[in-house]
Amino acid sequence: MGRWASILLVIVVLGIALRACIFPSRSEPGELRAQEARTPTQPGKDGETLLLFNGRNLDNWELVGDARFSIEGDCIVGETGSGRSNAFLATRSEYADFRLELDLRLHSRGNSGVQVRSEIVRDRNGAAEHVRGYQIEVDPSERAWSGGLYEERGRGWLADLKQNEAGRKAFRKDEWNHYSILCQGARFVVQINGITTCDTFDGRRLAGCIALQIHSGPAMRMAWKNLRLTPLAGSAWQTQPEPAGPTAPAELRIGRDASVRLLRKDSTPSTSPSRTDAGLLRLRCGGSGAQPVQQLECLRWDMQGIEVLWQSTAWSDWKELELHLAGSRLVLIADGKRVCDALLTDCPVGEGLRHDPELARLQRLVTLP
Question: Which among 6, 31, 198, 359 has most CB atoms closer than 10 A?
Answer without folding.
Answer: 198
